[in-house]
Amino acid sequence: MYAVIRIRGSIGVSPKIKKTFELLNLNSVNNMSVWPENTQTLKMIKIVANHSTYGNINDETIKELITKKGKAIEGTLDIPATITGLTSGKRAKELNLKNCFKMSPPRQGYDRKGIKKPYSLGGALGNRKEAINELVKKMM
Predict the structure, then answer these.
(1) Contact call for residues 54 and 3 (beta carbons, < 8 A)
(2) CATH code for 2-139?
(3) What is the pTM of this model?
(4) Rounded to the nearest 5 degrees, what angle is found at the Cα of 12, between the Cα atoms of 6 and 18?
(5) What is the mean pLDDT of the chain?
(6) DSSP state string for 16-61
(7) What per-residue confidence (pLDDT) applies to 119?
(8) Can you give the pLDDT at residue 130?
(9) Which residues pair with 56 in a beta bridge?
(10) Angle at 114 between CA 44 and CA 64, to 5 degrees
(11) In the chain, domain spans
(12) What is the pLDDT of residues 53-77, one digit of tens each?
């Protein structure tokens, strides 16, 4: 599962990037969405990589995320069934889960070089791989 977090705003952004953010359900800063690992998702993430951060999220973080921030589309949310469904590769909409988690800014900030540099150079943007779990826990 990929977790994608929007870090930068939409001022001065091309229409293609704005549309991709809409498709990924990332409409404002500090929103997060969870997507299955496939080529279409990876291509969309690569388009918005200079304005967001992403990585592979583990099952423990998914469980904590759904219990704290998960909201149902209609009615109530069956948390154990939703967790097993997401970890098996189903989409959030199929499981009656809104795929937009409103996160707070991370405690103690992003990284020392800010939100305009890539993660590989000490910033906050781009692929974090497994380090995305630490960022999600800081933002809950």
Answers:
(1) yes
(2) 3.30.1390.20
(3) 0.91
(4) 50
(5) 91
(6) HHHHHHHHTT--STTEEEEE--SHHHHHHHHHTTTTEEEEEPPHHH
(7) 92
(8) 93
(9) 2
(10) 60
(11) 2-139
(12) 999 999 899 999 999 998 998 988 8
